[in-house]
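User: For a benchmark we're assembling, each entry needs the component sequences followed by a predicted structure for the full assembly. Here are entry 17's components. Please fill in the structure.
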Amino acid sequence: MISEKRFLKAGKHLMMGNEAMSEGAIAAGCTFFGGYPITPSTEVIEHLAKRLPEVGGVCMQMEDELASINAVMGASLVGAKAMTATSGPGLALMAETISMGANLEIPFVFCDVQRNGPGTGYVTEPHHNDIGFARFSGNGEFQIIALAPMNCQELYDLTITAFNFAEKYRCPVFLMSDAYLGHLHEVVKIPTKEEILNEVIKRELPDDTKGRVFSYKDTSTGEYIIPKPPIMGTEYCPGLFIHQPHGPDGLPTPKPIVYQEMLIEKITSKMDEISLTDTYKLEDAEIVIVSYGLPVRSSYRAVDIARKEGIKVGIFRLITVWPFPDKKIKEAVKDAKAVIVPELNYTGVIAEQVERVTKLETPVIKIPKVAEFHHPDDILNVIREVEK
Amino acid sequence: MSGVGPMYPNEKPEHPYLSKSYVGNLLGNYSSRFCAGCGYGIIAQMYTRVFEDEQLDPYLHPLVIGIGCYAQIMLLVHSKAQKILTLHGRAPAIATGMKLANPKMKPIIFSGDGDSMGIGGNHFIHLCRRNLDCVELVFNNSIYGMTGGQGAPTTLFGAKSTTTPYKMFENKADAVKIALASGATYIARTTVAHPRTFMKYFKKALRHKGTSVIEIVTPCVTYFGRKNLDNLGFEGEEGSKMDTGGKMIEWIRRNSVRKNQAKFMTEEELFNKYIIGEFRYEPNKPEYADEYAKIQKIAMEGKK
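Assistant: Structure for entry 17:
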């Protein structure tokens, strides 16, 4: 039975970013949240502690981050849609369990409201320093999906998408928010109940409950088949969940390479569906801005001003940051004379990826910012510099 | 004391629970990964027996197993039980998630001494504090067996291990005392030398609504027994070897004191001894999932 309180009244609501994310989770059918307060993600657990019991769900404040993510795993294993929210230090603590979740293909959503680091850092300042960490979070090799929203509306919409991705691809799905975005108050347009229910993928038992429970490669077609997630407490469950390299039946396999390949290829072979991107005035652009998250918003303004000055510049925006869309980036920057990557980190994690894709043939200019916004002028000055 | 260790007839008798165990059901043999003299086989068989006797619903009693030597118990326990191998020390947290997401369940947690006293101490404390309806079995072999015999938080004073090659000089952690302080509502300690008592406690725990903690003292011959004499380096006492399962189980039996007897003993006499018995049974304390259901009801009705 679906609780009526799961859906907010359709229409416009003024919401904080962290609240929009929480409401997105409830709309997506999340019924378990395990978390531990950490600035700047605290509003998520505060909001869900009030809202989740209303829809028959459970919001638990656990004793630490390790317990939070493990409780999320447990809840997901018995058939609840589950998520947790934390910040960089929490992600570091949770890494081991994320690795286990990836191994057992347990679907869950991970909201990372990033803050400045390393160490404690400035806890209320944004810093996209977990982008690289999320990609390689946890021991072992596995592919994750990371989505980068840039406003409160997207925090709501992409949380629903994240839950759908988790159900469909059975891998850790990250939402890369940050301290400013999480605390931003904006108008969010809530869709109607019917629209939401049409979009959401439900957790249910498959028709064939005796079938395989873990992903595998169909040898005849070469396609990766991802069965629905098993539910403990029903007959659709392996006799043993063991986080070693395992076959589709859950028993240990003597060929770890086959299993390893599956964990990564099951995501990367479905890039067309997973890779969400957006473009802005890119058709004739000679200078391409590649960005994600908050810096995109500054880039829009910079591009508009530059276009008035007659500079042909466009934006290629990553909504799905990981897996990295090599082909799309290659296509977008093939005629560009320079690529500008404004990022809220010093290393330039995504800039490095662009450099890899362009094989260093096109100059890639980083605009690093740490714990502060890009002013449109910061980007504009670089655009003018390149145009000269 | 018995100096000969366990003696088996030449032909092993047909085991009544063989076909019920996971590997027995799969392969039809006694395949076990435990060393000779290990106590985990006893525990696995006791679990399987209780599972059969009580006709446990496997869908409602998921078996959450941590990391340690005992994790291989998964091969010997009942084939129908739904088993999940979790991370080192995190089994109570996973069980919490399971119980809250499906309140009909009563998870059974297998954890070792390193699991629940060492790395997962925090989770253990908070599981007891919440009085979540589940059974936690703590297997205490006072050594880290899987990694090759390192000192554990429960290693007895004076014992030798690979990381305490001279002698153990730390105070040992006591799962029962921690559980008592944290608020678990059924707490007992027994040993593998008292299997029927264990079955009795386990059945009682299954019927109890609330957190049940049962510590089971079990021998590790390979890494504890072989390296220590049974006086644990205590001067003034003659030590004898503990290099077989039989000798070790005999030592555990001698080294454990019933709760009723312990009342009349001094602290020095109880040093390094295991006090066995039931320590707390409070069946009417509020249980976490029940309490949360009440919160949900209040929230759904819109009251504050």
